[in-house]
What we know:
Order of helices and strands: HHHHH
Distance between the termini: 42 Å
Mean pLDDT: 95
Radius of gyration: 18 Å
Low-confidence stretches: none
Structural class: mainly alpha
Largest sheet: none
Shape: globular
Amino acid sequence: MNALTLWLFLAMAFMAGAFMPVQAGINALLARELSSTLAASIISFCVGTLALVTLMLLQRESVPLAAFKNLQWWHWAGGLMGAFFVFSAAFAAPRTGVLLFMTLVLAGQLCTALLLDHQGWLGFRQASISVSKLLGLGCIGIGVWLIRRG
Length: 150
């Protein structure tokens, strides 16, 4: 991978992370306006689905229907997890504050990432747990505690 491609991937990851608290706030305001966290979550997913369908059409990409027959139950879990995040963010972030909510989201992401890397699960390259990785996660834990106190 060349340096430019790497920087583009890093920028994409940063932007995805930066959008998460903004998305939580937008969905929380939408939930308040509609008096329904579920309705706000559905709107969020419909808009996202429409954007992805539009992108597929613009790229002239299709998925053969026969491919769906080979999917396992757990292939569908990503959508459920996305729905859980959107609902949780719209519901919990306004009640906890977005900083604490996102810090806990980050802690959950990093703990799970550590386990996935260590085991090499879900197609990720295996990378063993190390003291420095555990210390980094410990710092995140301390950060959660400090933010909660503040």
